[in-house]
Design brief:
3 helices; mainly alpha; two-stranded antiparallel ribbon
């Protein structure tokens, strides 16, 4: 289910085609990295005044959808994170 609707856009002319929050140059990747570093929603909203809480949730949903549709290939080698 896509709940990020038109909050996330991809345009080759903006940030080399990386997914961004619509109307900004804030990448989904940047938001996810900040969250992974432990930055809170409120701090993100303070850091990026154009950002809304719905945008952060859209980033999380977008990432989940990308991973859900990812294909894995068994190449005989196991990698661990």
């Amino acid at each position: 289910m896509q709940t990020y609707g038109n909050r996330i856009t991809v345009n080759h002319n903006i940030m080399l085609g990386k997914p961004v929050i619509a109307g900004t140059r804030i990448t989904v990747e940047n938001i996810l990295r900040k969250l992974a570093e432990g930055v809170s929603f409120n701090t993100l909203l303070e850091m990026y005044p154009k950002l809304e809480a719905t945008d952060i949730f859209a980033c999380l949903q977008f990432a989940a959808d990308v991973i859900a549709n990812e294909e894995t290939l068994n190449l005989g080698k196991v990698s661990r994170f």
